[in-house]
Amino acid sequence: MRIIHTIKVSLLLFILCISTSCRKELDYDSNTQGHIIFTNATLARSSQDGMFEEGDAIGVFAINPNTGEYWGTNNKYVYDGNKFKPATENDDIVVTKGTDFDFYVYYPYNSNQNDITNITHVCTDQDTKSGWVNSDFMIATYTDAIIDYSIPLNFKHSYATVEVHVNKNDGVTAATLKNVKYSSRFNLLTGQVNTDDSRTNLKMYCYKANDNGNAIFRCTVPAQSLSSLTNYITLSGNSSIDLHAESDMVLSAGKIHNYSITYQKHVQITDYLTGGTTTGSGYYNIGTQCTVTATPKPGYEFVGWYENNQLLSSNQSYTFKVLSDRTLVPKYRNYSSWTVNISANPTQIKTAGGSSAITASAVRNVYINGELQGTATGTVSLSSDNPAFVITGTTVRVSENTTTSTRSANITASCGGVTNSVTLTQPGRKETYVFTIDGGTSVNGTFDSSGGTTKYTIVSQKTIVIDGNSTTVQANWSSSWNTSSFGSLGNDGTLIIVDNPNTTQRAAIITLTQEGSGKQVTITVRQKKKNSVDIED
After folding, report:
1. 537 exposed, middle or buried (CB, 10 Å; 0-12, 13-18, 19+)?
2. Of 13-27, 53-67, 342-356, 466-480, where does mean pLDDT reach its minimum?
3. Which domain holds residue 310?
4. Rounded distance, CA 252 to CA 184, Å?
């Protein structure tokens, strides 16, 4: 392999004119001279499609490395289905057998390329096969000795191919690669490539398609870096939509790169089956509407649709436009049983009456998709099982207990079917009684047959102790005779006995009973018999 130094364009053109005129004046000797033809050693466009086709043309530069003399400057050679031959007599390169020549070849041919150090190539729209094939740029170099005038060419691709797979495309018929570099300059001597920074949109070639809606689009461009943000793909057909690749991509010359986009996007639902069921997951064409619906199970409340822990919607049905793969999480809320607490201060109310302050609360754990999130409080209702204990708000009021018995009430706090109670008590008053007649529990009295009157001192008192304070009051009493028609006993203790109508002695027991205590005192009365008998006329 020889290193050829770059020759200024003016000098090259000057040498070209001399070499061309000299070659035409030479007499052709078939024994020592031959017409150069080229064969394609690789036989195929490896990163394009199929074989070279008849009519494909290449541009050839031929240089004598010893003298720097050009024997061919952008000579056009055309493929005849087997080899590349000169397009015209002026393109024919005739060399002497054994001569040392270097050949620099590019494809596709462009009549304007006369500077071997500055071969320009521009990609165009590739929505047709010819546009796609002609956008490719290949280079081949041959620097070995010429033996049989048939020069084998091993073409190398200088551009890269971007391939886009569109699956289940719902009527997509065309694709465009956006904002891509499209023009380069090549130095065939050194192999240096300079790609312009200017950008354009290029229509892509539909390389394959089938009845299932799957398609492969290709586009050949200079080697460059594609950004998933700026080098997006526009699909068109029934509708138009822009798709971004999943990641950036660095293109390498001579390679096919799958610019990974997915026309259908996957809507996934991460279900919490304990809390509910959902519908709506699956694959959707980009740009279409998707509705996901959650149905909570008994005992659960729907909280919302979440993605990346962000609330999307609190509605059970959520509709959105599918533009990318989505993973949605339905969240459900459930609760533990209520814990009800109740206390009272004080728990014993005075006999004279009073109030007690009730403190009651209800709390339960809150879970979202099975994870503890905190607690919730509930509204507590209060009730009393004793009407004497009256509830007003959170206060229980009781009037005076006028009995000697302790009374109580269960104050119950209720929430969500769960109850808890506290017991309030109120002691009864203390009562002591004094009941005497003439200082004792009984007296005796004897009366003449004619009767008479006497007075007894009856003491009937009740002492009431309420919360340590005592009060003494008169206690009522009542009397009863075991024998009727004896007389009467007044409230002041005066006993009146009437005449004894009988000729026999008589007696009576008067029982005095004190109200409240039931204590009794007695008066025993004896009356002499009547001494005379009344005779009726």
Report:
1. exposed
2. 13-27
3. 265-335
4. 14
